[in-house]
Amino acid sequence: MADAYQLQNGGGDKKPLLELYVKASGIDSRRIGACLFCQEFWMELYALYEIGVARVEVKTVNVNSEAFKKNFLGAQPPIMIEEDKQYTDNRDIEGRIFHLAKEYNVPLFEKDPAVEKRIESLYRNFKLFVRAKTDFDKGKKDLQVPSDIESLPAAIKIHYNRIVEQLASIDQLLSDRQTRYLLGPSMTEYDCELMPRLHHIRIIGQRLLGFDIPHSLTHLWNYVLTAYRTAAFIESCPADQDILHHYKEQLNLFTNQRETLQSPTKTHTLPETVLDEIKRIGLDRK
Amino acid sequence: MADAYQLQNGGGDKKPLLELYVKASGIDSRRIGACLFCQEFWMELYALYEIGVARVEVKTVNVNSEAFKKNFLGAQPPIMIEEDKQYTDNRDIEGRIFHLAKEYNVPLFEKDPAVEKRIESLYRNFKLFVRAKTDFDKGKKDLQVPSDIESLPAAIKIHYNRIVEQLASIDQLLSDRQTRYLLGPSMTEYDCELMPRLHHIRIIGQRLLGFDIPHSLTHLWNYVLTAYRTAAFIESCPADQDILHHYKEQLNLFTNQRETLQSPTKTHTLPETVLDEIKRIGLDRK
């Protein structure tokens, strides 16, 4: 039913063992799918694993398999299991991780309303943009090439503008704070939320929308680079093809063999000019 | 995409309008499906609506429809919408309801660790029992008649015993407290969690497992009766057939026309002897 994706046992046998069931890719059920909540919790669990608080096992599950349905009776990933306890609700999963973090003084759940406000509606607005733009592009001749942003009607451009504004406001916050992660030198739940979403925006922007995070947002790009250098993010990140496949499936777009037969790849590099600018102003050495 | 299930507009136009998208039944997408989180939030929203804090609209959605997938890009019900904000995460939905309740001093989220401990693993254990018993019954000649609890092998009976013990401990708590709801005279989030789960246990027990909540647990049955007299529960409750269909689907059991063609019915009555006992000791007059 579940393919063991990763085994991470850190010696000590008194540590709690947390099993996380994440949604498999629609291309290959042994690969990680593009479920954002799954990646978010995986990153949090990774943080606990890294400092030796817990043992963590992650398994990909095919939600359409009879075995999965029977075992979980209608629950959807992410699902966390600890001994005989099954956590099928995001509130409960987070509650358990929160208590473990608290018990071991891991500053994973520090609160910051300013950060919360900046990031909360970004992905929601991105989804509106994806829907509007792909709908618009369906009328086009060459479906493989997304239409130019500049040529969009005002009703769709409004979504684009909102995304860019929000990305700029996160860039500004990062520039003001001059920190590696959103709250400081170490990763918190806000990063576990934002990093996967930014990566989806980047991959889907590039492959489906003809959109990129503006190259002028150097601090934001540097934050993306931080994600690409954070083990918790890298380990839990689906391949580009699996991310694209997920959106195409939901949008009822034609899936071509380029994605389903390709060897999975992960874009974890930055555009060259952006990387040069980051190096020039020395952000990468912070 | 969504069928408007219910419109509940309480006059005042400054009240926030909260739209809740709940999973439709697999039998008929205009009917409510057996999604426990959906019912839980629906009950909480109903509580806010009842006292005039918010306007609430509930819509059933067919999660397999292209329109749904496109609108929500992979998110699953329950989904709550307020103005242009989409809440697709149980943590966010609860967070919003929590803040509204707090703003208007609605005691919906009072904490009670003793109650939390008693109810937390009940449904999880029930799922283990459902799976083990239906697996066992698959080997039987007459698949329509569930095997007798007494005849079960020890490995399955252990699940049964655990459920009965937990139900008895909730009965004891209700007997000690002598309250209408778990915490007092008014409904809290704990009731929104427990009532739908108890009802599923009852319906699935009766129709699939040959199991009933022990009739000796008078205080627990009286609590079930309270659910059947609580508007928030009644309104949000799926029909028996839709509950049964959900479990059969997950368990990969044969669905017969009895369920799919029957007019939907809701069992909101108690066994006669239990009701007599409740009346005899005067619980129903509290």
Automatic annotation (TrEMBL), chains A, B:
Concerning Pfam families, the annotation shows:
CLIC-like_N (PF22441)
Q: Recorded GO terms, molecular function?
A: chloride channel activity
What biological-process terms (Gene Ontology) are attached?
Answer: chloride transport; epithelial cell development; regulation of tube size
Q: How does it sit in the membrane?
A: Single-pass membrane protein
Keyword vocabulary terms for this entry: Membrane, Transmembrane, Transmembrane helix
Alphabetical list of InterPro entries matching this protein: CLIC_N, Glutathione-S-Trfase_C_sf
Domain (CLIC N-terminal): give its ranges.
16-94
Cellular localization per UniProt: Membrane
Organism domain of life: Eukaryota
Gene Ontology cellular component list: apical junction complex; apical plasma membrane; cytoplasm; lysosome
**PANTHER family named among the record's database cross-references:** CHLORIDE INTRACELLULAR CHANNEL CLIC (PTHR43920:SF5), CHLORIDE INTRACELLULAR CHANNEL, ISOFORM A (PTHR43920)
Give the record's family classification. Answer: Belongs to the chloride channel CLIC family.
UniProt protein name: Exc-4
